[in-house]
Amino acid sequence: xxxxxxxxxxxxxxxxxxxxxxxGHDVTATRRATSxxxxxxxxxxxxxxxxxxxPSALExxxxxxEVVYHCAAAVTVRKKAAPWVIAxxxxxxxxxxxxxxxxxxxxxxxxxxxxxxxxxxxGRPSDETARWNFAEHGIMDGYTLTKRxxxxxxxxxxxxxxxxxxxxxxxYMIGPRDVRPSSGKLLxxxxxxxxxxxxxxxxxxxxxxxxxxxxxxxxxxxQTGERYILGxxxxxxxxxxxxxxxxxxVKPIERVLPRWLANPAGWWGDLQERFSDREPLLNSxxxxxxxxxxxxxxxxxxxxxxxxxMSPLDPAIHDALTWFRAHDMLGPTPNLP
Length: 337
Known about the structure:
It is built from eleven helices and ten strands. It is an alpha/beta fold. α2 packs across α3 (83-103), α3 (83-103) runs parallel beside α4 and α7 (237-248) crosses α11 (314-326).
């Protein structure tokens, strides 16, 4: 089957392209003129130069595809949604939908995020029906807002235009082929001991390859208009720090950084964002992310309807670190076992 993919140069898109090829599909992927693709040289991908802001180029890329997987997105820690983030995540999703409909592709699988779902208010893991409440918890930022808006664009096209689309909502993904890096930056910083301490929060961590397989399953078995959380394990950051250090063979970072000590870095980032056009390293929203214990999610719906399965997390950490080392991204640290 011919399939098309946006965002193939990113962590999820790269692993999705690999999963699709392993399943016997012919894969066409979009890339920007400036995108790196050398880390995907081992994959038989047909590349088409196209940006999310170019509907006609997207049509050329999607022509002949039965299923289109939309993974491309702009990531930011800014509290406010900058125009370029809106253009990529919201307007870009509209352009993808228009191109899917123009070429007559059978189905769109849209990669959203659990930031478009909702945090746990009662200690139980959130499911797909959770109320969107990030602003109430001080964790609203431009990425969260635009990912929610992009999902609403897809849902509206399903309801009003008859679009056959399925939405997936991954959690915090870990694995190989994270060239930028994105979420894997945390692992690199743990190994390099580049963080002053551990925050007291928690997150839901998942092997990116599980998410990739879940997206393939969503194309085959997902219900039109439905969303599916593709997650893994609810773990504290202290536990991720411990596991990563043990796998890398480095001394663990055990100091717990109190919230009051971290807050000034967030406030400084807020000031940077307000008075300059630079992307802050941190801000008050990202500090809040690090300390929330309400970031808990269940993938029960995906397990029941898609046959989704979750792998142990340690192999994902190991494979991510091995890939980073092979690409000279870890620095002088002990060899991995």
